[in-house]
Amino acid sequence: MAKSLEQTKAIIQSMITLASAALGLVCALAWNEAIKTAMKALLGEDDSLAGVFTYAILATLVAVFVLLALAKAAAKVGGEAAVTREAEG
Q1: Which of 39, 66, 85, 86 is the most exposed place for a label (fewest CB within 10 A)?
Q2: Percent of the chain scored above 70 by pLDDT?
Q3: How far apart are CA 62 and CA 20, in angstroms?
Q4: In which residue ranges of the chain is pLDDT below 50?
Q5: Domain boundaries, given as residue ranges, for the chain
Q6: Helices and strands, number each (H, E), in the chain
Q7: CA–CA distance, 17 with 77 (Å, rounded to integer)
Q8: How many CA atoms lie within 13 A of 12 on its CB side?
Q9: To which H or E segment does residue 49 belong?
């Protein structure tokens, strides 16, 4: 009976992980489209090399900011984050 309960827990945890990944992908694609549209509005419709690099740099900065904010929030609640910084000194 305990083995069955452990298997059920593992299945539910797997379903939560998969659903979280799928919803994360949907959100990422939505933000991708929003940032692309904003960049086109700012830089015009031309898909120039400068525009593509600007978009890539902006997307990277947003990703780094969000990951660091989430890591800080995880540290405050006592959890572990996927991104950690080594101690200075």
Answers
A1: 86
A2: 84
A3: 20
A4: none
A5: 2-76
A6: 2, 0
A7: 20
A8: 6
A9: helix 49-76
